[in-house]
Amino acid sequence: MKELSKYNIDIYGLEDKQYDYDMESGDAFFEELDQDLIERGHFKTHVVLNKSATMIQLQFHTEGAVTLICDRSLEPFEEPINLDDRIILKFGDHDEELTEEIEMINRNTNKINVARYLFDFIALSLPTKKIHPDLRSDEDELDLEDDEEEVILVYSSAETEEEESGEEEKIDPRWEALKKLKGE
After folding, report:
1. Residues 6+ apart with CB under 8 A from 121
2. d(CA 91, CA 105)
3. pLDDT band at 138, cuts 50/70/90?
4. To which H or E segment does residue 16 belong?
5. In terms of Cα–Cα distance, which of 37, 8, 116, 24 is closest to 63?
6. β-pairing, 55-69 with 76-92?
């Protein structure tokens, strides 16, 4: 916990204005957290804290690299990280996560620890396929860069305009016979 205590920000008694914090960490940060995703890494983070009477806005800019294990070769490699993220902490009566970006914290909170936010931002920025740069092909590069997957439409219940106009012009003769019986 000694490593993670470097990420405490005392908010009690802060005036309503902007504050800047610079944080730097390495392997000890990832070892301290109970996780298996990242073994080693080093990064620098610049945190801009905007405090107002009702909320705290935290903006993070993180640069560095983390060591990952390749899914194909099981060899370690460094993946660069360059992130810009934001968290809003609203003052309330209890602690609650409202959305991905907004959390409610108790008014009496003296300090906040941003280590969890930093790890979450780094973990979410990692590619789903962890492939060593030497083994990446053009197709793998596209997969890593694009968040959108190719979608193939298998079934659609919506009718196209051609189908609708074709049905009005050409009616099944069996239906015509039934309409005659009905008297239309």
Report:
1. 60, 62, 83, 85
2. 5
3. low
4. none
5. 24
6. antiparallel
